[in-house]
Amino acid sequence: MRQWFYSLLLGITLLLPLSAQASIADITRIYKQTPKLDAFEICTGGGCAEIKQVALTSDEWKVVTAIFEDQSPNNASDAPLERKHIAEAIGALERVVGAKTGTSTDRAGTFDNSRYPGQLDCNDEAINSTTYMRLMYQHGLIKLHAIESMGTRSYFLFGWPHSTAVIHELASGERYAVDSWFYDNGAPATIVPFAAWKSGYFPADSPIIKGRAAAK
Asked: Containing H/E element for 43?
């Protein structure tokens, strides 16, 4: 397993109170799972402190497949469109899964919202988004990208660590962060070049930014 994952686990352990720490074995199992529509696990509670079992019906999955219907099969020029579809599909899955798991109330960010029920942190979001994309890939919806290991930034050097799911475009090799933490549950994920995300990217209209501005 890559070194980043051990770093991520250490970060989770340090950030969570002892009563809420996730089992490293559980995090590893969930992250490495081969999800199926009728059986997969998602992380909640911050650092995967809570684990929820989820199943999707065929009608619920049709909501996801419908998002990809206007994409030409295997057309490399459609890679930007496929990224748009991935972002929208993650939002759709968050809405479906949120209703089943009590995470529909998840708000953008983490620390200012910890008092709200159903809150996810960036580690939960990154692991869950990776799981959702694996489902899409298995069902032939993702054709022009490959799913990578999660990425982190600011690992206890310049601020709090932050994690994201990651993909790369097959034709160009360009890497992209797939970050669902910037907005409330059900919003499309933010997909930007990984280098930009790594340097500290935040969407200007994210509620996190608006909250910081209001607090000043």
From this structure: strand 40-44
Axis crossing angle, helix 122-138 with helix 79-101, rounded to the nearest 10: 120
Residue 62 dihedral angles phi and psi, to the nearest 5°: -60, -30
Burial class of residue 196 (count of CB atoms within 10 Å of its CB; 0-12, 13-18, 19+): exposed
What tokens appear for 48 in the block?
């995967």
pLDDT in tens, the chain (216 residues): 454 454 454 444 444 443 345 567 778 888 888 999 999 999 998 888 889 999 999 999 999 999 999 877 667 679 999 999 999 999 999 999 999 999 988 888 765 545 666 789 999 999 999 999 999 999 999 999 999 999 999 854 445 788 999 999 999 999 999 999 999 999 999 999 999 999 999 899 998 876 544 433
